[in-house]
Amino acid sequence: MSAAWLHDVGYAPDLVATGMHQLDGARYLRDVAHADDLICRLVAHHSSAFIEARNRGLSEQLASEFPPVEGLLSHAITYADMTTTPDGEPTEVESRLAEILARYGEGDLVAESIREASPLIIDSVRVVTTALAEG
Ligand SMILES: [Fe+2]
Residues in domain HD (predicted)? Predict the structure, then answer.
């Protein structure tokens, strides 16, 4: 699934515009890579991006440029993001969330957004884990 591979492209230094990696990445995929609309929307919203967008004052841009995707696909890209370390190793969602909080530090906008999003992220991981177990 392309979106799972591309979801963090917005961290690439040359792509940083707003500083919100989901939105920067989705804009790059739309405007430069001319990626499929669904991929752009999934990348834009992965890991409950609407919370960070709100905290940055970017809710309107995010929602109007990239309508959210509902359902299992949306959970799946969050699962991919949140069960993998920054080095690409498998990890538990709780460890991943703790790593993000530690990396950004108390009071940082990204850390606070992730803290707020944590219940939704954990729920996405649960949904996908259940779906995988059911085959
Ligand atoms: Fe991400």
Answer: 3-61
